[in-house]
Design brief:
This protein is an alpha+beta fold. It is built from four helices and nine strands. It folds into two domains: about 30 residues; about 180 residues, Sortase, Chain: A.
Amino acid sequence: MSEKKRNSPLLHIATPFIVLALCAGIVTAALIKPSDKLKMYLNIAFMDSLRSEPDGGGSGLVVKDNDIIEDYSGKTSSQGEVIRPKFGELFAVLKCDALEVDVPVYWGSGSELLELGACQSTGSAVPGTEGNAVISAHVDTFFADLGKLDIGDKVTLDTNYGQFIYTVKELIEFKATNGKYVVPTEDTRLTLYTCKKDILGNSDQRFGVICELTESRFYTEAGGEDQ
């Protein structure tokens, strides 16, 4: 570069802006990981942009409907092994007298699955394991009567490896951007929620219930603790 170009006023003016752009790029890259972690914890916000998607979303969603055991009459045990479902799989049926319908529960979240039933966040605990199992559904369909649930009501999840009975302990309301009730927990619970109806359009308010696990019945072919 010639001496004249090195001493160009334009070059001296542009240099600070170039350095600032490089620094901004480095900071943005450093924030990618925390952002991914936040998305994992908030992916249950089904009316928002942060929602569960299948690995390799471009390949399309594969929905798998299963016949869920709802009338098991064999021996059960308070402990057992869970069967972790795959994305898009019908893996449970949710029952509660207040809901007035048996709700199919799919693993994962997305507009297509929410048309078929309730959806459980893939970042939450599989029923039968410790932690927070988070399930949501549309207020106009499968969770239309969620507001009828009250403290003390029983909620049952039937799966093909066991039945899990919960008791409503707390009524909740929160904004879609608030992850307080949907993050992993040390205690074993079931969190059900839906969006709050708004005549002006989609609402950023959510309401639901937190349920405490009161009984686990793992299915066994032989042996086990008879319940």
